[in-house]
Automatic annotation (TrEMBL):
Source organism of the structure: Pseudooceanicola atlanticus
Keyword Transferase applies: yes
Family matches, as CDD domains: NAT_SF (cd04301)
Alphabetized PROSITE patterns for the sequence: GNAT (PS51186)
InterPro entries: Acyl/Acetyltrans_Enzymes, Acyl_CoA_acyltransferase, GNAT_dom, YitH/HolE_GNAT
Protein name: Acetyltransferase
Key word Transferase present: yes
Domain N-acetyltransferase: 4-140
UniProt superkingdom: Bacteria
MF annotations from Gene Ontology: acyltransferase activity, transferring groups other than amino-acyl groups
């Protein structure tokens, strides 16, 4: 077999990667592509065979010390030929000395471990229906909130990701962010419409009750069904609360890191995406 050409993705190829992700049932947001590109324009890669794109992956820089791997996909008719692994190795070179995180499905975790990734936790997807409820404590995020939101995000995730966060929280027709503010700003939520329903994330809040206030307030402005929320393993109280509201766990991954793993804080109630962390 001719060796695949592994290269940085061009133009609309990131949108193609998200179309493939949708076909696999990953249900990306309607406006994810532009935010993903803004996070790290050089962090998306494809493999070509005979001039045709057949595999894809992302390794997105979130700063000088951390990167996140996602969108690892290979067309079914080209699997089992080593193309995906060649692209994997090529893309990981982009990370340099950074620690690299990923959310890995069960079938691939042993393969990831062979590349030096160690399980540090888990991410579980919850799906259900929830009526939105406005709150006097929740308002739309504005530009003046950016520094405070960035610090909340850094404390919650254990590392800064300024380019991604700026793009993710910028208002779009199908993606909006809100903040929780009492005497000070101490919570944030983003909701985005997807090809099916609405995904809520990140949710950063001091506890599960505050997280639900944020989630319900977001849904009051962006009602949709089903509601999809991806929770880190430590978010037990919010998982219990959602289960009591009729949500079901529908999908789970292992959170894995190659290199020193960041220490997430207790305020991380839900992650932003399984593709970029």
């Amino acid at each position: 077999m001719t060796a695949p050409l592994c290269r940085t993705a061009r133009g609309n190829e990131i949108a193609l990667m998200l179309d493939w992700a949708a076909a696999e049932g990953w249900n990306p947001g309607l406006e994810d592509a532009a935010a993903f590109v803004a996070a790290d324009p050089e962090g998306f890669f494809v493999a070509e065979v005979a001039g045709e794109v057949v595999a894809a992956i992302s390794v997105v820089h979130h700063g000088t010390d951390h990167a996140f791997l996602g969108l690892y996909l290979c067309r079914p008719d080209h699997r089992g030929r080593g193309i995906g692994y060649a692209l994997w190795q090529h893309a990981l070179d982009h990370a340099g000395d950074r620690s690299v995180g990923l959310d890995g499905v069960a079938a691939q975790q042993a393969n990831y471990a062979r590349s030096g990734f160690i399980r540090t936790g888990a991410t579980t997807r919850y799906e259900g229906r929830l009526t939105g409820t406005p709150s006097d404590l929740v308002r739309p995020m504005i530009a003046a909130d950016a520094a405070a939101v960035a610090e909340l995000d850094r404390q919650a995730n254990g590392y800064a990701r300024p380019a991604f966060l700026t793009a993710w929280t910028a208002p779009q027709p199908t993606r909006r962010s809100w903040v929780l503010e009492e005497t000070a700003l101490h919570g944030v939520v983003t909701a985005r419409r997807c090809r099916d329903g609405v995904k809520i994330g990140p949710v950063i809040a001091p506890d599960a009750d505050a997280a639900l206030v944020l989630i319900r307030a977001a849904l009051a402005q962006m009602p949709e069904e089903p509601v999809i929320i991806d929770l880190p393993e430590a978010s037990h109280d919010l998982a219990d609360a959602l289960t009591a509201l009729g949500f079901e766990a529908t999908f789970a991954t292992a959170r894995m890191w190659r290199g020193p793993a960041p220490q997430a804080g207790p305020t991380l109630q839900a992650i932003a995406t399984m593709e970029l962390g």
